[in-house]
Amino acid sequence: MSDPATLPELRRNVYHFDALIPVGSRTTCDLPGKSGSFQHSWLDTDVPEYMTEERNLRSGNLEPRLNRQQHLDALGVFQSLKRRAAKGQLPIGTTPDSPAKVMQSLSYLIELRPKLSMGARPPRLFRLYYAEPANVQDALLPLVLSTKPNGPDLQQEQNASIDDAKARSRVWELTKAMKGKK
Amino acid sequence: MTDVHAGTPFTEEQVALAASNYEAQEWLLRALREAFVMSGLSLQDLASELDLSSEDAEAWINGEMDLTLSELRQLANVVDAHVTYRVNPVHTKYVDRFERISKDLWQEVPWSASHEITLA
Fold this sequence. Notes:
The complex is a heterodimer.
Chain A: H1 7-13, H2 25-28, E1 41-42, H3 48-58, H4 68-86, E2 100-102, E3 110-112, E4 124-131, E5 139-149, H5 157-181
Parallel strand pairs in A: 1-5
Antiparallel strand pairs in A: 2-3, 3-4, 4-5
Chain B: H1 12-39, H2 43-50, H3 54-61, H4 69-78, E1 84-87, H5 94-100, E2 115-118
Antiparallel strand pairs in B: 1-2
Helix pairs in contact in B: 2-3
């Protein structure tokens, strides 16, 4: 991050994330996939913490309670779902089998949800949280790669991930504003 | 945050293969749903044929349940669908290992060979 002296001022002015409305417009703009004319971009290198999590997933180290092949399976599912979202061909729903879902507690956050079922019921589920920034054309912004319990979330880990996504999206917006001021 | 980067990263080819296998599974489930619709069966019919509750039958056909291979076969039989499994060997990791293994232990098989198994 550049000049720290400008941060308080920027925080006052830009302390929210400006999301595209309606949420999911880019992700779902070409359902049921007839046109094939959309190609949105994933800003995979914009959020440093996400990059670290993505590296850890790619190395099989994001979640010690899941094995290496479960990491690879999740990577494959995320790649496929991200590709469909980039084409605007990923449905967003609320049923248990929906591959993507809008978070109730943070209305601009979308969750990618791979199903993981190797052998016995896996103890954890991988999740990728992203948003559609209004001010960057055709962009999809990945914010958090994490896991949550496959069952009751006693420690409210999913809420913690959503809080992380919220904070990161605001920092991203701040950083973008700072770059714009230069 | 600790950057735990100790494991060997998966290659692009390995991730692409995992994505492709996932997409094949999605395609299979979608095709079975289409076969169910074309069969004219109701969810109650499906539940009755498979000895399931209506809720479970709906979960089977909507892909919410991770079916075993035998359950998949039974579902295909009920909805009048012919399921074909096709396996193609690919090079994402094993080629390097083969080079290190003594040739005395292995009879070389060309990678171009593929095996097709048809079930149901």
